[in-house]
Design a protein that fits this description.
The chain has about 425 residues and is mainly alpha-helical. The chain is built from 18 helices and 2 strands.
Length: about 425
């Protein structure tokens, strides 16, 4: 039932919601990322190392999940989200147990089945956060989980391998087991989150399930502006995933030593900077202004990305600073899409849509691109190390993404809200 809430109730439930969402998705990463701390460095296929095959296998399952999620996330009703998350993560953990039980290289198939359910978890969690006046702050907290968890779970994996003596094949399942209870607690909290209030709906529009016809109508209506965004997001996702999944190899290639805490330290700094910038969009009440401010944030991220590359080339910074600034440049636009761009696009146009639907459209394409870049690394650029690949890809992305951002900005500057959708209450609150 939609009701009004007092400021104190809003604060309490906002804090409750962000803790629940953060905890759920942070715990989910324990079932996805710790394996990347392993070396898995034996040759497998045409000189491709086993780790690359595992990364491709999991990401391919994750990518396929995003395509499936375009339909599933858009059509899942609110009361089924928490149960859906529980089922998906349970299937992922069973796959990790199968990975430990099965000898190499046949266990690589279980990494595919690990990624297949996990790709839909984010959309189900996000559905509990969108369409609220505090959505940017809530989603920023959710995004903080996957930025921070990427480093923390590598530290957990490294700790299990080096300090606890667990084998590489069983380490992923052991890491997932450590976070089973925290995940359960956070899922219970998420189940108790109330729906958006009537004031939320007035300010941001109501978010309802979308049929196939609804999805096609929304996308086709704004395609000239959405397609450049998809290109931008594709490039950012490729670079983010390359930096994230091959961070141990990046450190080794740079010639820097690292410990289990190095990943946590670098990603903590990136998290603090990105959330501080993107989370403040909640203070902008005007949806149109917030939308274009978010696009501007994407531009700032591209500037930081270029600056980190120049600084590294001229030896103006150490390797740790380079990795952190590179992360800031990539995550600023990446998180802006999650927190603000799509949230305020729907609120600005007053059209029927959900952030989950739009995120899964761009995520599906983004992960498809990452699979391609990993294959290129192994089959086409054998003489190119991972750092050189990262730098070349980053410069290409800066140029192409800047062009895409300008095209999208120009298009959406001409889009006006669908005035017929506004009610008297919506006009009064959103003004």
């Amino acid at each position: 039932m939609r009701t009004s809430r007092s400021p104190w109730q809003e604060f309490f439930w906002g804090l409750w919601t962000v803790v629940a969402a953060f905890g759920c998705y942070f715990s989910m990463y324990a079932f996805r990322k710790p394996f990347t701390a392993g070396s898995f460095n034996e040759p497998l296929l045409a000189q491709m190392d086993f780790k690359s095959v595992l990364v491709i296998s999991q990401v391919f399952g994750y990518m396929l999940s995003k395509f499936i999620g375009i339909k599933v996330i858009a059509e899942t009703p609110p009361h089924r989200r928490v149960l859906g998350i529980l089922i998906l993560i349970a299937l992922a953990q069973l796959s990790l147990i199968g990975f430990g039980l099965t000898p190499r290289p046949w266990n690589l198939v279980f990494m595919f089945f690990n990624g297949l359910p996990l790709g839909m978890v984010f959309g189900l969690v996000l559905g509990c956060l969108e369409g609220r006046r505090s959505s940017e702050a809530l989603t920023a907290g959710l995004c903080a989980s996957f930025i921070l968890a990427g480093g923390v779970m590598k530290s957990v994996g490294t700790w299990l391998l080096r300090d606890r003596g667990i084998s590489e094949d069983w380490m992923p399942a052991a890491a997932g087991g450590l976070f089973t209870i925290p995940l359960g607690i956070c899922l219970v909290m998420l189940a108790l989150v109330p729906p958006p209030s009537i004031e939320d709906i007035a300010a941001r529009t109501e978010r309802s399930t979308m049929s196939g016809q609804d999805r096609w109508a929304f996308f086709s209506r704004y395609a000239p502006g959405l397609l450049p965004i998809i290109v931008f997001y594709l490039l950012v996702t490729i670079l983010r995933s390359l930096r994230d999944d091959f961070q141990p190899e990046i450190w080794k290639t740079l010639g820097s030593t690292f410990t289990s805490s190095t990943f946590t330290k670098s990603e903590t700094l990136v998290t603090l900077g990105v959330i501080a910038v993107n989370g403040t969009a909640v203070l902008i009440r005007n949806n149109r202004l917030a939308f274009f401010t978010a696009l501007g944030t994407c531009g700032v991220g591209l500037g930081l990305l270029a600056g980190s590359l120049i600084g590294h080339h001229l030896d103006l910074m150490n390797d740790f600073t380079f990795i952190v600034l590179l992360g800031l440049g990539l995550y600023l636009p990446y998180v802006a899409f999650h927190t603000t761009v799509f949230e305020r696009l729907i609120a600005m146009t007053r059209d029927k849509g959900t952030v989950g639907f739009l995120m899964y459209v761009v995520d599906a394409i983004g992960y498809l691109g990452f699979v391609g870049i990993v294959l290129l690394k192994n089959y086409i650029s054998r003489s190119t190390n991972v750092v050189e690949l990262l730098i070349i890809s980053s410069w290409a992305s800066v140029v192409i993404s800047t062009i895409a951002l300008v095209i999208s900005w120009v298009y959406f500057s001409k889009v006006q809200p669908r005035q017929s959708k506004l009610t008297e209450l919506e006009v009064r609150i959103s003004s």
